[in-house]
Amino acid sequence: MQRTILFLILLIVTPLSLAQTATGRVFIDENRNGLLDEGEVGLANVRVSNGASVVLTDATGRYRLAADEQTIIFITKPSNYAIPVNQHMLPQFYYIHQPNGSPAGMRYKGIEPTGPLPAEINFPLIERPEKKKFEALLFADTQPQTTRELDYIRDDVVAELVGSDAAFGMTMGDIMFDDLSMLPRYNAIISKIGFPWYNVPGNHEINFESPNDRYSLETFKKFYGPPYFAFEYADALFVVLDNIDYKGGGEADPGDVRGNGGYEARISRSQLQWLAEELKHVEQERLVFIATHAPLGSENGSYATDNREKLFRLLAGRPNLYSVAGHTHTTDHVYFDKDDGFAGPGKFHHHVLATVSGAWWSGPFDERGIAVSDQRDGTPNGYHILEVDSTDVAVRFKGAGKPADYQMRIVFDVAHHQLNVNGIRDFKAGELLDGRISQDHLNAAAIIVNLFDGGPNSKVRYRIEDGEYRPLKRVLRKDPYMLEQYARHRSSKKTWVEATLSTHLFEADLDANLPPGVHAITVQAEDEFGRLHHGHTVLEIVPGFEGSETGNKYP
User: Which residues are within 8 A (CB) of 503 and not within 5 positions of it... i.e. 6 or more apart?
Assistant: First the structure.
């Protein structure tokens, strides 16, 4: 309470600075010392912004922009140039002008007073050709709540990515779990992957002492710069937007994924104004990739950004669009069309990514002492690899610590069990879903496939031995695997975590006439991008009592 009072007093007594003009040059840093030296030339037609207006540098690389008492001047990195990074591989494409620094009373450090506006704010760029075909890493919700969970990120994800040849990485918000004092160590860990890393603000990067959204990301800004910005890479424009609108009122409920803990999912007017200006300088055919923390929408209607139609209007007429988000700790593919307010052409593909933290690092521990943190929809914790070839986009999922071809989980479900919590104790872990079924139970048995990054356009089929393939139908239900995991491991999961409806489960009834014996099962899945995945399991059917001529007892 005391911090909030001090904060409000400061806002009342601090006079607003008169508007000033920021100027400087964007230049090619030949000797890579970060300084504009004699003989180094400016770069024309680079976009520079103060968060509202967007201007182009002139023939000498110079720009002029208005600046007030809380302005971030930043550039849009042009294709075939690199931005210098700091010791933690964080791109340095901005200058924060905040003469008085962040308001007093913040729990976590914000912006130190920057003093008067410099005579020049110059931005160095390094010439570096970019191939039209490239990859980037996409993280969502790394979200460590404790220093031990930072260890999980280090050992479960970062270690296997060291040496990756991706062009850059991005995290879609909820980088932390409210404790922003862990950001320096987190940044140091992520930097070891070895290439530039961009960050999207989430609801767990909020400075809760702020009475409203204006000063809610002071610590985020300290480490990462502007909460919304853009950069080019090859033929693509990457746009980061902040769609967490903080309403004040104290700390958010950590398990409130619907956005009722003092914030709402909304894109501010200033961001929409900036984006409209930015897109004026972007060719209509260029791939535009939108990154937010909260989803723009979800298939089952459980989550949406309130004013997404305004964003859709800005993007209308562009044929090459893709967008990603995190936040829900589920994986989802949504295709917006005219019924959703998107005028086209075609549909706008929105992808809610699997999270690095899975179910907030819940679950039993593996042999390394790391939580086996499968998401609430049955997807393993992990990340995605973005594949871009000029304007063509595909994304592939990678489970942390899993083989690259591990893209599905196959189980068998006998309907009468229903994974009743009161009955699970009578079975060994996994026994209710394994491939050993009595003939008596076949009539009520189904094969269930969780295609981890599947969606409405995915197709899944299976066959027994060398038989004909049979289709599985996509169903909206809770993954029975997760129902069992959460029932068995309540002591090691976060209190708010429960199984949720999955949008990538596929189901088919087993043939009740299958004979006793051991049968090889092959599952073939085509994902949202037309890639084929295969999975295999073994189904063992044992004789039942009904119709038994030998009188064998149930094995």
Answer: 299, 300, 330, 331, 332, 333, 377, 454, 455, 456, 474, 476
Q: SS3 breakdown of the chain: % helix, strand, coil, rounded to 5?
A: 15, 30, 50
* Beta strand 236-240 pairing with 229-233: antiparallel
Lookup: tokens for 30? 């030949």
DSSP string, 157-178: IIHHHTT---S-EEE-S--SSS
Residue 428 to residues 170, 472, 498, Cα–Cα distance (Å): 41, 28, 21
**Tokens standing for 212?**
């409203």
Helix (H, G, I), strand (E, B) or coil at 194: coil
Question: Which two tokens mark 257?
Answer: 């994924």
**Three-state DSSP class for residue 278:** helix
Task: Count CB neighbours of 223 within 10 A.
Answer: 18
Looking at residue 232, its amino acid is E
Tell me: the pLDDT tens digits for 300-328? 777 899 999 999 999 999 999 999 999 99
Q: Which of 323, 343, 342, 341 is nearest to 333 (CA)?
A: 323
Least confident of 18-27, 148-157, 380-389, 516-525: 18-27
For CA atoms 17, 23, 27, 31, the dihedral sign is: negative
pTM: 0.92
Q: How far is CA 41 from CA 63, 123, 483, 485, in A?
A: 14, 12, 62, 61
Helix axis angle, 269-279 to 308-315, nearest 10°: 10
**CA 218 to mean position of chain CA atoms:** 22
CA 147 to mean position of chain CA atoms: 21
